[in-house]
Amino acid sequence: MTDTARIDHAVYKTLLESTKAIPWKIDWKSMTFAYIGPQIEALLGWSSSSWVSAQDWADRMHPEDRAWVVNFCVAQSKDGTDHEADYRALTKDGNYVWIRDVVHVMRNADGEVEALIGFMFDISERKKTEAKLIDLQKELETLSFKDGLTGVANRRMFDSIMAAEWANAKLNHQPLSVIMLDIDYFKQYNDHYGHIQGDDCLKRVANILSSATRRSRDFFARFGGEEFILVLPETDELNAINIAERCRTLICKEKIPHEKSEVIPMITVSLGVGTIIPTDKDDPIRFIEEVDKRLYQAKQRGRNCIANSD
Questions:
Q1: Mean of the pLDDT values across residues 115-127?
Q2: What is the pTM of this model?
Q3: Which of 61, 174, 213, 251 has the greatest number of C-beta atoms within 10 Å?
Q4: CB < 8 Å & 24+ apart, contacts of 112-117
Q5: What ranges in 173-225 are assigned the alpha helix state H?
């Protein structure tokens, strides 16, 4: 090696070892490290001299990442394809650091794989940021399906649940029941007590009705305004009427004052009940419209009552 070559080599080595990226080289035939930057010790705690073979690399990897990362990298290397992989690397003190390995495959004059060279990057902060963004996205998604005032599910969530339960009922030839209910004379309540008190009333009603069902798949949501809706999978009409009566009774027992009601001087609800075993000829929108008509019938009959198919 000439003096110039030695100087150039020293310069390149200094440049490589002064970066945060950790350079390395593995001989393909022997699967041993020809070189790994000293930065590895600052990051993981393992000295450069302890990285002898590719097995050391594999062993110092999170057990959940090891199999797929090793298999992927070996397969890509055999094909002569440059690649990269993210995984959790084990530190000497037993913790883990997220690493991104960027790999370049070197070939000899005959086209055979001769060596792998690459850089390891510490991407722990990036992964933390990604995790926070995922959590935030989940939180926003949850909020997008929640009614902002009452905290129960909203119309958007109802649409999704209704579509899924309709398809399931049609597939399994099972009854699906829906209860729509409306607070009686709620406009008069708002006019008399004010909108702040009206909002509080909606919250109380939603909280009460949330406890009206007992099965995990039973679904309750605010449909809009002072209207609420329950979706009851695998529930026949008789059981749906019983649940509707439970809803009506629970509201009456709460005894929320309503001086301007023309029923009794307390908050009451009117309810419409519908049950169907859907077929290809049926349509969920028309079914909901029919249940809404029954809610209107309950209003016509004097309110604080239930209307069904009878």
A1: 92
A2: 0.62
A3: 251
A4: 113/28, 113/77, 113/78, 113/80, 114/27, 114/28, 115/25, 115/26, 115/27, 115/28, 115/34, 116/25, 116/26, 116/28, 116/77, 117/23, 117/24, 117/25, 117/26
A5: 186-193, 195-209
